[in-house]
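General statements about sequence and structure are easier to judge against a single worked case. Part of our work consisted of pairing the sequence of a single chain with a tokenised description of its backbone. The amino acid sequence and the backbone structure tokens for this protein are reproduced below.

***
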Amino acid sequence: MGEALIGRELEQEQLNTWVDEASAGQGSVVLLAGEAGVGKTTLAHHTLANSGLRVLEGLAVQGGTSPFGPIVEALRSYLRTTGEVPVTAGPLAAHLALLLPELGPPPPAGDRATLFEAIRQALAAISKGRPTAIFLDDLQWADDATPELVGALARSVDTEPLLLLAAFRSDELPRGHAIRRLRSELRRAGRLRQITIEPLGAEPSAALLERTLGTVAPPLRRAVFDRTDGVPFFVRELGSALAASGRLVPGASGLELLKGEDVPLPDSVRDAVLLRAAGLSNAAREAVTTAAVAGQTFDPDLVMAVAVLSEWPDELLRRGMVSEVGDGRMAFRHALVRDAFYGEIPWTRRVALHQAVAERLEAERAAPVLVAEHWVLARRPEPARAAMLRAAEASGAVHAYRDAERAVRRALELWPDAYEEAARLDVLERLAGYAELAGDLAEAVPTWREVADGRRRDGDLPRLGIAHRRLAAALELQGRWQEALASREQAAVAFTAAGRPADAAAERLASAAHLRSAGSFRAAIGLLEIAGEQAQAAGRVDLQARIMGHEGNARARMGEGAAGVDLVRSGLALALEHGLTGPAAEIYQRLADALEHTGDYAAAKETYDEAFGFCSANALQPTAQLCLACLTAVLRQSGDWERAVTLCRQVIASGDAGPHASAVATGMLGSILGLRGQSRRARPLLLESLTTARGIELVALELLSMWGLAVVDETEGDAESAARQCWLILERWKQTEDRHYAVSPLRWATTFFTETGDSAGARACAAALAEIVTDSGQDESMSALSHALGETALLDGSPEQAVGHFARALVLLEGVDVPFDRAESQRRAAAALALLGRREEAVEQLIAAHRTARRLGARPTVERVTKSLSALGERAERRLGPTAHAQVVNGSLTRRETEVIRLVARGHTSREIARELFLSPRTVESHVASILLKLDCRSRADAARRASELGLLGA
């Protein structure tokens, strides 16, 4: 029985389960955690040795692991044993050369995602030939890039016969360690699999001690357990040390300690190791001391050269202090053994040895990070600083940006005061750049500020502008928009003073683009006018065209519809004339948006479709996805909800959609689901879109998401929460110059406030709509104001005036394609007509509203209209026909879906339903999924209950 099985039966059983899953093609990432010496490595080795998996290992080394070091070691061991490049034929194979130079020159260009995918494909190819385990040991000492790669691999490993097993010391994880981030990422994704290895109890410790020494007397068992706390490595080491030093004698019940005070038990692992090493020759002691300085794994030739030895002392191997690990290298049996010898070296001697090792490694062109660590420990700041900067460059070259950031930061910590300030500023720029790439904005922002201050002192205006540009970008990622806008303006001022008008124009264009999205149109136009002059002075046609597109769009949003659209068209024509596909794609989207703001939804839809086609034809996929996402907002407003839902799902699933496009598609999908009464599915989507919209200050989506949440709250009967959302819409609108996206939410909110008896809320919405009409004067906004005035007339007890206002609202919508708004005005006009006793007219309005809501699938509206008809003694099915009415009340279920839900309600399984209806089980499951979606249910039981409530189950 191996050591791993003593007291580790439960841990091994759990690990074997995951090994079996990997063998069956369902891989995973498994973490082994525990303090030093508890047997993580032993458990892994014992389990994997008996697993039938191919095992590849990589070890992280304290103070000297290169980027992706453990993974590289594992891949290199595969290359060494098979001679095969572990990637199927494809374009990514060459990217592995970044980490494995023996494969040849790497491609001239690449990025982090491509490198990660190349590694993923390599591991998939290895495991395809034979189920494989990658064991990464001592990950607490790894570079940051390795845990980040493990987290990325975890997203796809579950479809491969691949086990990624990573062991780390849980007692050596400072706050912010990469493994802590890895664990959090895996936990959020529901992929965290961890085995925590605890010290052994008294009985397993005694069993382990007896496996080392033979039968042991109870007093010695207790003494060893008390001294070692059940740490297996300490138990073994202490037992071996006592035996080797002759301190044990046979007793009546087993081995015992010699009597007397001169044979105390060692107090620590270090003491036990040194006790066991007593009697080493001078050469062996010199070798092991130098090796401890060289590292956990080391080159014996280097150690002999530094220690001035002619040959390697074999007694270190015989005593088990070190072992051979391949490629002519050796390693200490355990990191604690190395720690014990290292701790015995006097400080001055240690410094000298580190310097000698650093000099030797530098001459051999060893990894810069390893050389740098030895120079640091040799107390030589100047060569350490230079090596740290080389290490940063090497890490950056393989996209290990956190490691590069750390190396540059350490180089700066070694920088003398008032020394080569210009060079220090250049290094600070590198630190800020690496921090950005690593996503460490908390480091990037203050560093860019420091760089900007330094460039200002030096009077270096071009680089001052660049520093402020980069600072603004980092602030934007943090959502600190006011500071970002100020920094962009400082960049523009610096570029202007430096005689670089094109750069100044680009900064002001970027600021204006954000101000436009944030609903600050006048400020945006002011910046665009200055930027236009600078772009013209610089002869930059691309900037001129883009500026015209943005300015025209902003003017259209302010109510200058025709003039704004014409200006956007001029910008588009200029871009197309000069073959500027990127700017043209952007301006195409601006044109469609401008048309939308004029209320010409048909033209807006056509233009968005054209823009999508243009972007797709020119391989501009992110912009193409943005066009589709923005199109969904027009489709939602104009009542083409089915296509909108389809496109929303397409954008959300696309890997090319940016945050803006994804947020819009998520919000529009949530909005439509909310209007259709599918509140449980709508709410998380709307909350997600609202959070993103607030982060990027996308006012239109903020307003529409809050409206969607208000609709969901009302559907769920939470009028108080719905009212809060309506007031939030009003407050947010007041902070902007929006004259379009707030119209429908305010129209709806006015009705909500009226129906809940909140006169102040209704009148506040009406006042907001009156202000919008003053600026825009479009039929859609004027209709919304008339609708709001109808609601306030009802609150004032004047149904006759209300009828007039609602009638005007409907007339104004005759040329505007907004069916949901029209249905709501018809429903409310009917309420006013009913109060006047004009029953037949009220019924006509309700029937018209019912038809529209039925077509849209707006179930809550259908139910309200049906209730109003019942109050008038009318039944919807009598006017509409039973089939048409039932389709909406039933959640728009098809005939086949109705058959399926009836059988589900009887308790039939999918297989049973398939047999009865002559379908495949998969088709039945598809019908069930559609039923759950349409009825807004989470389970078959919920759907059966809902179907019963709707009268779908028949007699």
